[in-house]
Amino acid sequence: xxxxxxxxxxxxxxxxxxxxxxxxxxxxxxxxxxxxxxxxxxxxxxxxxxxxxxxxxxxxxxxxxxxxxxxxxxxxxxxxxxxxxxxxxxxxxxxxxxxxx
Amino acid sequence: xxxxxxxxxxxxxxxxxxxxxxxxxxxxxxxxxxxxxxxxxxxxxxxxxxxxxxxxxxxxxxxxxxxxxxxxxxxxxxxxxxxxxxxxxxxxxxxxxxxxxxxxxxxxxxxxxxxxxxxxxxxxxxxxxxxxxxxxxxxxxxxxxxxxxxxxxxxxxxxxxxxxxxxxxxxxxxxxxxxxxxxxxxxxxxxxxxxxxxxxxxxxxxxxxxxxxxxxxxxxxxxxxxxxxxxxxxxxxxxxxxxxxxxxxxxxxxxxxxxxxxxxxxxxxxxxxxxxxxxxxxxxxxxxxxxxxxxxxxxxxxxxxxxxxxxxxxxxxxxxxxxxxxxxxxxxxxxxxxxxxxxxxxxxxxxxxxxxxxxxxxxxxxxxxxxxxxxxxxxxxxxxxxxxxxxxxxxxxxxxxxxxxxxxxxxxxxxxxxxxxxxxxxxxxxxxxxxxxxxxxxxxxxxxxxxxxxxxxxxxxxxxxxxxxxxxxxxxxxxxxxxxxxxxxxxxxxxxxxxxxxxxxxxxxxxxxxxxxxxxxxxxxxxxxxxxxxxxxxxxxxxxxxxxxxxxxxxxxxxxxxxxxxxxxxxxxxxxxxxxxxxxxxxxxxxxxxxxxxxxxxxxxxxxxxxxxxxxxxxxxxxxxxxxxxxxxxxxxxxxxxxxxxxxxxxxxxxxxxxx
Lengths: 101, 660
Prior knowledge:
The complex is a heterodimer of chains A (101) and B (660).
Chain A: E1 9-19, E2 22-31, E3 37-47, E4 50-57, E5 62-71, E6 74-83, E7 87-96
Antiparallel strand pairs in A: 1-2, 2-3, 3-4, 4-5, 5-6, 6-7
Chain B: E1 2-8, H1 25-35, H2 44-55, E2 58-59, H3 65-68, H4 76-89, H5 95-99, H6 106-112, E3 116-117, H7 126-131, E4 137-148, H8 153-156, E5 165-175, E6 179-187, E7 197-207, E8 210-221, E9 250-253, E10 263-272, E11 275-290, E12 297-301, H9 309-313, E13 318-330, E14 335-350, E15 360-374, E16 377-385, E17 390-401, E18 404-413, E19 434-445, E20 448-459, E21 470-484, E22 487-504, E23 507-525, E24 530-543, E25 548-561, E26 567-578, E27 585-586, E28 600-601, E29 604-615, E30 620-630, E31 648-659
Parallel strand pairs in B: 2-3
Antiparallel strand pairs in B: 4-5, 4-31, 5-6, 6-7, 7-8, 8-9, 8-10, 10-11, 11-12, 11-13, 13-14, 14-15, 15-16, 16-17, 17-18, 18-19, 19-20, 20-21, 21-22, 22-23, 23-24, 24-25, 25-26, 26-29, 27-28, 29-30, 30-31
């Protein structure tokens, strides 16, 4: 009997901080049955609590951008993303950090 | 500059957290050395030799230059520098004394440290060994079983005589470094008998003038390998300068599982100060084919497989008797010279079908080798004569300083130079029908290490079907840097342009094929117990005459985890995608001790494995490996006898090592 796999992928990437406040990211995603996708991105910390992000990828060709706002233990993220079928889409994120500090 | 690494493996359902490791220096060293052999050959014999050298360490304070050069990948300049250091200090007491030696790089010391023993170590004489302390006899046993859980078509059809188990058993009794008795029996998958292959030897050393003596199976390495060598040698790779010159090790007791490689008989080495004299005699039966009508040998088979009636019919039917003598003289730091003669006589004549085939049944070989040091220049080479033509290789190394060295080497092996036992440096196996010029350098800088080689080669007779000359060239550039402690980045690019004879539109012609290979790799430690290795590799091939371009990609993540000194795990997940077998990507794997695997991956799929090892306090070591190759979009894998009617190919192997 053959093994059926619906979705299985490998994601390998690195972040590089050239200068303070500026992080470059690169990653490759490989899913079986699809060509590898290269993803590049940049995050700039304009001030301590505000981050600006922009990124692009191939396979499929997409672009994206967004912001991140951090206030004490709460982080709110917003991004727009050019979905190949749905057009421009919007995504929101909420992160709450539980730390000793 | 700060560098942060984010490594993530996402799976749809279950995160797979395997990891781990064999952190032994031996395995780490071997991984880098053997990965360069980018073929699907298993480097078993080389592994066994290295393991033997690690278990029988060389005493750094008494070893001659020739003995130090038995260490894999050590160069002569470094061996001389070590001897000078011990003369300067009156002895090398520890690793720090060695690291302070002028002319020996840190990188080389990391590689050779496993083979050395420091301090005031005196070799016990042979007679002391047999007269005293009988309790200090070592017994070692290694038993291994490897089982493919999916049955190939040949097994399900009942084509093969035996089961699909690969069984390996090795038993060694040794006393000091002076006496060793070893027996190995092995069965390949499909073979019927558990002792389909048996090898054994009795070895003794330092019996008065007799430096080495072997009865049973042995190897003999001379010079650069143009006449006598083992079958396995390291291919071109990141050892751009260390790969040449080679250091023939003379007599080597044989205890490996390659079935058609060793000589069988007896060999002895007499030693008088700087002069060594060797003689050896061998009688053995090889696998091959003999034409019944002409009674001539049509081929010699080296795969050692006896699984069905056809393969059994070829089993050990070609008889060879070999008798040889050799001598060498060492001038100490200045250099050495060596001479060799041997005759190889087969019971049957060889069938001479093409210009590359041998003819007759008796073959004589004469060879001379040399190595000389003049300051920063080191010359070495070998020239051999088979009573028809001369084969030669000559190399010059310039050690500008301990951080920069250059190597140039010229080789010429005529088409009518045929030797079953040779294994000279070259683009292809066989030490025949090839000329070439190799140049390389290694450069250690404070910004990282750079290695480079460029090799041009030519085959005077490209193919039997179209006997035109064909040519090619290849270069490699390799860069490694350690930006932080416990973190290493590697970049390796190879480019090969090679002609071959191929059928193009129904007619034979010369096809030029280009292959580019780019590999980036990051090695880092997450903690004292966890090591990681991440790799991205790209392959691109292009065949000119048919305008065919193919691409290949491989990604893998290694994790090694050793929570205690006695327990370790090693795991890897690989994703790959190639257009066909021509754009395949090799992936050298960690495996059980003594096993080397370098599978070629092609198509679209993934592979993963886990190796676990546990060492008890009473000399028993247990290890196992489980691996899976999965191609979800395929219905079958393999072809012909190796066809599997599933898209998963999985294998289980386990091993027991016991020393008492």
